[in-house]
Amino acid sequence: MSAATRVAVVTGASQGIGAGLVSAFLERGFRIVANSRAMPPSDHPDIHVVPGDIGDRGVAERVISEGVARFGRVDTLVNNAGVFIPKPFVDYTDEDYANVLSVNLHGFFYVTQAAVRQMLTQGSGHIVSITTTLVEHAVDGIPSVLTSITKGGVTAATKSLAIEYATRGIRANAVSPGVIRTPMHARSEWDVLGGLHPMHRMGEIKDIVDAVMYLDAAHFVTGDILHVDGGQSAGH
């Protein structure tokens, strides 16, 4: 199958890494199903937007069903949507807990389940999830328990999915970033955040996009957690 007929689904697609992924897939001739909580329709003939909260099962299932209705198939799902709330553990509220679990875990589960069902009918597909190096390498001063609970679950589930569907044409991988220069980080924080990495700089959106593109083209790679973190996961 040529890349021109392939379809990628990207969650959290309105800005930052998600917007970078949409552009990269378009450059490679993919058609795109893009999701974010509040995302306006696109005039581009190869982009179909499904707005809404990916943590809502109905929205997640529509992301896949509308993608199939519009473009005929789903070849790659990128679970990019995520919420990070850096609070001391004892300060997390019930609302914080529900919000992080809804996007990071429920959204992953609902949309991935719907995508795998479609991929099974096709006999092929690829799931790439964006996690975080904080799961394996906690950092003093960056409280991240809710992130570790949720993105750690996604990391573990990636390996399980890879093994469960290895003989059925479906691959599952993850990209584990360090701190990436996106609109969520104020310029005044860049030096401090860059210092968290052995390379003493923040990552760029392109670094994560390139990693996803590599995994999507690496047909003998499954169950891999690709760290794109300036050496953070290796140590300090």
Fraction in beta strands: 5-15%
Listing every helix as H and every strand as E from the N terminus to the C terminus, the arrangement reads EHEEHEHEHEHHE
Number of helices: 6
Count of individual domains? 1
What's the CATH topology label? Answer: Rossmann fold
Oligomeric category: single chain
Cross-sheet strand order for the largest sheet: 3-2-1-4-5-6-7
- Protein structure class: alpha/beta
CATH architecture title: 3-Layer(aba) Sandwich
Please, what is the average pLDDT?
A: 92
Measured between the Cα atoms of the first and last residue, the distance is: 44 Å
Weakly predicted, low-confidence segments: none
CATH homologous superfamily? Answer: NAD(P)-binding Rossmann-like Domain
Number of strands: 7
Estimate the global geometry from the Cα principal axes. globular
**Biggest β-sheet strands, sense, barrel:** 7 strands, parallel
Topology:
Blueprint: E1 7-11, H1 16-27, E2 31-35, E3 47-49, H2 57-71, E4 76-79, H3 94-122, E5 125-130, H4 145-164, E6 170-177, H5 190-194, H6 205-217, E7 225-228
What does this 3D model show about the protein?
The protein has a seven-stranded parallel β-sheet, with helices on both faces. It has 236 residues and is α/β, with parallel strands linked by helices. The mean pLDDT is 92. The chain starts with 6 loop residues before the first strand and ends in an 8-residue tail after the last strand. Helix 3 packs parallel to helix 4. It is globular, with a radius of gyration of 17 Å. Helix 1 links the parallel strand 1 and strand 2. It has one domain: 3-Layer(aba) Sandwich (Rossmann fold). The protein has six helices and seven strands; from the N terminus they run βαββαβαβαβααβ.
